[in-house]
Specification:
With about 550 residues, this protein is an alpha+beta fold. About 30% of the residues lie in helices and about 20% in strands. It is built from 18 helices and 21 strands. The strands form 8 sheets. It has a 5-stranded antiparallel sheet with strand order 7-6-21-20-19. A 3-stranded antiparallel sheet has the order 5-16-17, with no helix packed on it. It has a 3-stranded antiparallel sheet with strand order 8-14-13. Strand 20 and strand 21 form a beta hairpin. It comes from Cohnella ginsengisoli.
């Protein structure tokens, strides 16, 4: 055991065994004098809920020696002279999610044993002990009941649409789903799910090659960043969309707001929708079609949202913006997108958060500024995260207040004293005339959707079926945003199901279960949690 210091300094501790049983601890404690140099010490082990509550949001830990690939840890000990704050190579540190984001608050201080030694590094006197200091405790905004209901809703619905006999609902390749529920007035995120998930306890002691291979596509949080489709074969993986998908028709309320505010349309502007819109030079025209080439007849801005008319958006907003401003119209479009949180980070602070993928500038070079604005108008030129969609939905719900999404309700020290409380944070405000907001709200209240037949609250929503070209051809992703109650919005929900088909079928029923879970746990009105009917589970 090298007590003579031939390999290690005599004062260096070496682990002989970890995970001692209660009986072993008792034995060595009782026979301490018989085992010179043997100490029993506590080690910090992070234990995660077996219920897998928001696994990817919480994140996981690694030993510092395996975490230096992150910028946060590269020079973590540089100029640090306090030995209790110096990081040890064997120390577990946050590597992703909230574990990394709040590493400094969670860590505390290391303990220290100091020994007097001679010139041969042999201990010659009694040890001085500096006790470790525990880190602070985080209390999350995540509501466990709502979170677990969200996770279950995604898992169950994915199974349903993969095997459904209903042609409109069936989506055989829907393997993943992402959802975020965010309070409209506070910015608190009460649920964030990236499914499938995994048991984060596999990181204890280091993840095995077998576990890594099994979970590699589920380790990252697809609700905030791009995560590839879960196919082991690379060629097959390229045939399927990632977690970042086009907005599809969920774009249309913002398209109408832009058109109104830029004077391209009025609240009463009509358009005869034959099921398509054509643009381009004579003989080389490109035709933009509605879903199913549906001819909707005379439409107003509100009914264009209700009927999800691509033709209206293209002809009355996208094309008009191009005819007025040419290529500069792209910058006008881009500014509106960013004001609503699309194409910029949500400012949540989560490590690795994506700002999405803006494609309209690329399309303007590949095609034209005209095609870029027309395709953008109905949601086919920007791929964004579920968290961005939730922030966008809360901004619509609040009539223009973009809030920072937050995950920590408060931070307390080990004595229960509040170190940091919660304050909502406004990122920006968008001022539009009241009639503009009323126009999109009227349209969103009329959108046809599955799963809400017996919903007791008025709510506003927009479905999206976003088309996306991948290696295997063109796929359809299910996207859905909604907020409720309509007259006093409290919760906004965004759901994304890659290859989920129609948003009304592939994503909306998941959102309904999230609203029900929130109503049961917190309450969609100021009256508090909804009361259960006798013998009826909440939300049923």
């Amino acid at each position: 055991m090298d007590f003579e210091g031939k390999v290690h300094y005599p004062f260096q501790q070496r682990r002989i065994k970890s995970g001692l049983t209660d009986q072993e601890i008792a034995y060595f404690s009782e026979h301490r004098d018989e085992f010179k140099g043997v100490d029993i010490v506590e080690e910090s082990i992070r234990q995660y809920s077996k219920e897998r509550v928001a696994t990817q949001l919480v994140g996981y830990m690694k030993q510092l020696s395996g975490a230096t690939s992150l910028d946060f840890y590269k020079d973590i000990n540089k100029d640090q002279e306090d030995p209790t704050l110096k990081y040890l190579d064997t120390e577990d540190v946050g590597f992703d999610g909230l574990e990394l984001m709040y590493q400094s608050e969670l860590r505390g201080r290391n303990g220290l044993k100091t020994y007097p030694v001679n010139n041969q590094s042999q201990i010659i006197g009694p040890m001085e002990l500096t006790k470790p200091v525990k880190g602070d405790n985080l209390y999350l905004t995540i509501n466990k009941d709502v979170q677990l209901a969200t996770q279950n809703a995604i898992t169950e619905h994915l199974q349903q649409i993969r095997t459904s006999n209903n042609k409109q609902e069936r989506a055989p390749n829907a393997k993943t789903g992402y959802a975020v529920a965010m309070e409209v007035k506070t910015g608190k995120v009460v649920a964030m799910a990236s499914m499938p998930d995994y048991d984060a306890n596999v990181w204890q002691g280091g993840i095995s090659a077998k576990n890594y291979e099994q979970f590699q596509f589920y380790l990252s949080n697809g609700a905030i960043r791009e995560v590839q489709a879960p196919y082991a074969d690379e060629k097959e993986r390229k045939k399927h969309p990632s977690s970042l998908v086009n907005l599809g028709s969920t774009q249309k309320p913002l398209t109408i707001l832009l058109g109104l505010n830029e004077g391209l349309i009025t609240t009463g502007s009509t358009f005869s929708d034959p099921g398509y819109f054509e643009f381009g030079r004579e003989g080389h025209k490109t035709r933009v079609r509605n879903a199913g080439s549906a001819a909707n007849g005379i439409l107003t801005p509100a009914s264009a949202i209700a009927h999800s008319s691509n033709a209206y958006m293209a002809g009355m907003v996208g094309n008009k913006l191009y005819l007025r401003d040419g290529s500069k119209g792209l910058d006008v479009w881009d500014n509106y997108m960013k004001e609503f949180g699309l194409g910029v980070k949500t400012e949540s602070g989560l490590p690795g958060e994506s700002k999405g993928s803006v494609n309209y500038y690329i399309e303007s070079k590949r095609g034209s500024a005209q095609s870029a604005l027309i395709y953008s108008s109905f949601g086919q030129q920007g791929r964004y995260t579920a968290l961005q969609l939730a922030q966008y939905a809360t901004t619509l719900a609040s009539r223009g207040t973009r809030l920072k999404p937050q995950f920590v309700d408060r931070i307390e020290d080990t004595d229960g004293n509040v170190v940091q409380g919660y304050e909502s944070e406004v990122l920006n405000k968008i001022e539009f005339p009241k009639s503009y907001w009323q126009t999109i709200e009227s349209g969103m209240s009329q959108v046809k959707v599955q799963g809400f037949d017996d919903f007791k609250y008025s709510f506003r929503r927009k479905t999206g079926t976003s088309e996306q070209d991948v290696g295997g051809g063109r796929v359809e992703n299910a996207v859905f945003i909604a907020y409720a109650p309509a007259n006093d919005p409290k919760l906004a929900v965004a759901v994304v199901v890659p290859e989920g088909g129609y948003g009304g079928w592939g994503a909306a029923p998941i959102a309904r279960k999230i609203f029900d879970a929130y109503d049961a746990a917190v309450g969609l009105t100021d009256a508090g949690p909804a009361k259960k009917a006798a013998g009826t589970p909440a939300g049923q």
